[in-house]
Amino acid sequence: MMEKKLYVVPTPIGNLKDITLRALEVLKASDIVYCEDSRNTIKLLNHFDIEANLVSYHEHNEKSRVDEIVENLRSGKVLSLVSDAGMPGISDPGHVIIKELIKENLPFEVLPGASATVTALVLSGLPNDSFSFLGFFPRKKGEREVFLENLEDRKETSIIYESVHRVLECLELLSEKFPERRVAVIREMTKVYEEVTRGTLKEVYEEYSHKENIKGEFVIVLEASSEETSYDVAELLKSEIEKGLSKKMAVKEVSKKYNLRKNEVYQASLELED
Questions:
Q1: In this structure, is residue 125 part of a structural domain?
Q2: Which of 20, 123, 185, 201 could pair with 175 as two cysteines, CB 3.0-4.6 Å apart?
């Protein structure tokens, strides 16, 4: 007899065989399966001959669905929450439900299972003793600038999600900012055409810029900022000024060329003699 609670159920990120026996058991026993997109979830359930009452849950109806889930739990129903792929609550609205259930002191359980984040991290070959998951690369220009600045000083491996429609632009911006940092770009993870491209950001971007008909979902794993790299900013500024640049332009050029914070370079410029 399945306990009456909400079960957070991870689903395969590509290969349907990656579903767990426990996940199948829970899905079969659920009175309602709340899903991101019923068209995707039904394919998974049909594959394993599971009949279920599917109800959509996404960012556009999350408020009404949260209230409904709370009421269904109070009435003693067995509920499941799934996303299109991977762990619900990671870069999807599932976390809103979990926050509300904690607030209302209602029972829920998280099943272990497939995770694109951890799978990509191990597959990348980059250091994994410390890492950050940063979600999807921002779409808005201002948010992108803040995002890139935040990456400058990170001392741990960073993991970024991106869609097929924006991956090339994302790699271009990253390669302009951190051309020599190592990266692994992974697409179609766990599927037949899984592909891992490793190298510096400059190398990987150049390779992707020549690809045609790029398909799939992408995970970008970026190495940490190097702790060993240090520059004599004053000397770098002097070198640019000697080339004929104004102090203001030298600050801009040094910041861009060496991936240094503009404020740091500007402060160093104030100590130079005019």
A1: yes
A2: 201
